[in-house]
Design a protein that fits this description.
Order of helices and strands: EHEHHEEHHHHHHH
Strand content: 5-15%
Largest sheet: 4 strands, mixed
Radius of gyration: 19 Å
Strand order of the largest sheet: 2-1-3-4
Length: 264
């Protein structure tokens, strides 16, 4: 009879971590940076700190790239290179790093923790990252914002009225649940990469919709979620990172501030 292990065995790779993402913007790569920064793990942000620049990304996503015997070609960044392993997709990279960087409880402590944390991170990325991008590009990602501005305005109104409260309310419930173990963190009574993902999503929302987020804060309906944001922001390593040159400014990525899309 076949026995299925609840957790894959960790690879013994001792190679350095290399993050490959577009230079000059936080984007989806920021979730990976935060994991490294929060855990104090050395890494190379290839496009931002080496001469390779954007070419580091382009060579991997080039249509002529078919990968190698071990690694399929990535469709888009972020991409993580760890020794001979090359993987992409933000939640997939975080899933790989979670136990290795001690950003989830260990399998011995909680065999199901990785899947619970992954579930929470996926939910935050779905509703508070992917949907935010669709606010300013509701018709087609290949069109300029100005070519779909009327549709973006309608999308923003619906997002702020319906979708944002739904996801903030969900995470408020998570923090009140027994699995949170105390209400300070999303799972297991400790900071995990799901908390970092939610932090980054909230930070981006505060940039994109400052008036709406200010109203939400004043209303006091999501004190647990906003408390988690401040808690992550105040940790020693994240505080140092946010004040460093490594933390890039928002501009033309997922989170964009168009005053006409915010509340009046």
């Amino acid at each position: 009879m076949c026995t299925i292990s609840p957790q894959p065995a960790l690879s013994p790779r001792k190679a350095p971590y290399e993050l490959i993402y577009w230079p000059g913007m936080p984007g989806r790569g920021e979730h990976i940076r935060l994991a490294f920064e929060a855990s104090g793990t050395p890494y190379t942000d290839v496009a931002n700190t080496t001469a390779a620049g954007a070419q580091a990304v382009i060579e991997h996503i080039n249509p002529s790239n078919t990968g190698d015997a071990r690694n399929p070609p990535p469709l888009a960044p972020p991409i993580l290179k760890h020794g001979d392993l090359l993987i992409s997709q933000t939640p997939n990279i975080l899933l790989y790093l979670g136990v290795r960087l001690a950003l989830v409880p260990s399998p011995a402590e909680d065999p199901d923790a990785l899947y619970m944390v992954n579930e929470l991170a996926l939910t935050a990325l779905d509703g508070l990252s992917n949907e935010v991008h669709d606010v300013h590009h509701p018709v087609a990602s290949g069109l300029y914002y100005e070519d779909q501005q009327p549709e973006a305005k309608r999308k923003a109104e619906d997002f702020l009225r319906m979708r944002l409260p739904k996801f903030l309310g969900y995470f408020e419930r998570v923090l009140k649940g027994a699995a949170s173990r105390g209400g300070e963190w999303l799972y297991g009574g400790r900071m995990t990469y799901a908390d970092l993902v939610l932090f980054q999503c909230l930070d981006g929302l505060m940039f994109a919709f400052p008036k709406a987020m200010s109203r939400i804060e004043k209303e006091g309906k999501y004190e647990g979620v906003l408390g988690l944001y401040e808690r992550v922001k105040g940790t020693e390593r994240i505080k140092a990172y946010l004040g460093s040159e490594r933390r890039m400014k928002y501009h033309m990525g997922i989170y964009r501030h168009y005053p006409e899309l915010d509340e009046e």
